[in-house]
From TrEMBL:
Residues 1-29 form the signal peptide. The keyword Signal applies. PROSITE patterns: PROKAR_LIPOPROTEIN (PS51257). Keywords: Signal. InterPro entries: 6-blade_b-propeller_TolB-like (IPR011042). The keyword Signal applies. It comes from Paraglaciecola chathamensis. This is SMP-30/Gluconolactonase/LRE-like region domain-containing protein.
């Protein structure tokens, strides 16, 4: 009996070792994907941020779930996900949003803009306007490069879109504060301090009423032509601390400069001529801004004098063969521009893309 026990125990130890190594192998062998063949859990790749290890993170709110189910391309809705592009351009799942992350009234989370904060955590705009919830700024708490969990740190936005940090201040574009179709859209950019952001007591932004009656955190207000109902969208901060805001329906970019105390000095027109500007990122080595034109299926570099140069443009595609497919944002890493093919189709006459479709892709464009 004793001998049997001994062998049973030995067997148990051996089985435990086998089980543990199987477990660690599962962790090590995390599924990886190519940029040109993403799984359906990345069916609307949107915005980019670099993490602390030079990986590229990207949000995918998966806004095409319903369309793709109707097309028979996928069988069930994919949860919103954050992907990671490693230094070998392999894509893996960094975080999948969970039940406890959903906005309680709408039951959804819509991760749009993403940016790394000065505290090393990842901040995400959760757009709820289309779904009946209260729009939020989320903080993904990061330890050793891994996403641990998610906290709500501010709420009360209308259509939060891009997120960009300037020192300890975070800027969040709000694409629709008020809009009258074909007449005008009012949009803006909020500015919050890191020390105002708290999981225990999320910062409450009061609803925009008019130009003279709004939350004190509203840093800038923009009026645009009302053609789409989408105003302030992409945001980026350059090496000198200037802030750039793209106004989607006007196809313009504005530049805001700052006083010593980080208050606003002035905001002026910086570039115009795009059809519908989307995400913006600034790249240090090339000292330039990179921006997509969601409607015109194009990617541009814009120098620090506001001069645009076309980097890539395609017609109506499905995104295969590295072609652009309604690009949402572009980020540069080591001389390569990565472009999310958001693949939205709004049915507007000025929009090149006509259909969200497989494959789900991120394009790469050398910038030299
Ligand atoms: Ca596609
Ligand atoms: Ca398409």
């Amino acid at each position: 009996m004793k001998i049997l026990n001994k062998y049973t125990n030995l067997l148990r130890v051996m089985l435990t070792i086998v089980a543990l190594s199987a477990c660690s192998q599962t962790v090590l062998a995390q599924q990886q994907y190519s940029l040109q063949d993403l799984p359906a859990q990345f069916n609307s790749p949107a915005s980019f941020s670099l993490d602390s290890d030079n990986n590229i993170l990207f949000t995918s709110p998966n806004l095409h779930n319903q369309t793709l189910v109707e097309q028979g391309v996928i069988t069930k809705a994919a949860a919103p996900t954050i992907g990671l592009i490693d230094n070998n351009n392999q894509v893996s799942v960094w975080y999948t949003f969970k039940q406890q992350d959903l906005e309680p009234n709408s039951g959804v989370v819509t991760p749009m803009g993403i940016a790394k904060g000065p505290d090393g955590n990842i901040y995400i705009a959760d757009m709820q306007l289309w779904f009946g919830g209260e729009s939020r700024l989320l903080r993904v708490n990061v330890i050793d490069g891994k996403a641990i969990d998610v906290d709500v740190v501010a709420k009360g936005f209308s259509f939060p879109n891009a997120v960009a940090w300037r020192g300890n201040d975070v800027f969040i574009s709000d694409t629709v504060l008020a809009t009258e179709k074909g007449i005008s859209t009012t949009s803006g950019v909020y500015k919050l301090r890191l020390d105002e952001l708290s999981a225990e007591n999320p910062l409450q932004i009061s609803k925009y009423q008019n130009k003279n009656n709004h939350d004190a955190h509203l840093f800038e207000i923009f009026e645009s032509n009302g053609s789409l109902g989408f105003g302030a969208n992409g945001l980026a901060v350059d090496g000198k601390g200037n802030l750039y805001t793209g106004i989607m329906e006007d196809g313009t970019i504005y530049k805001s400069t700052f006083n010593e105390d980080s208050s606003k000095l002035e905001t002026t027109l910086f570039n115009k001529g795009l059809i519908a500007s989307d995400g913006i990122q600034w790249d240090a080595p090339s000292n330039a801004l990179y921006i997509t034109d969601l409607f015109d299926n194009a990617v541009y570099r814009i120098d620090m004098n506001g001069q645009a140069k076309l980097l890539a443009k395609n017609g109506n595609t499905d995104g295969s063969k590295n072609m652009l497919d309604a690009p949402g944002e572009v980020i540069v890493r080591a001389g390569i521009a990565y472009v999310t093919n958001f693949d939205a189709a709004f049915g507007a006459s000025t929009m090149v893309n006509t259909k969200p479709d497989a494959p789900f892709t991120i394009s790469v464009v050398p910038i030299k």
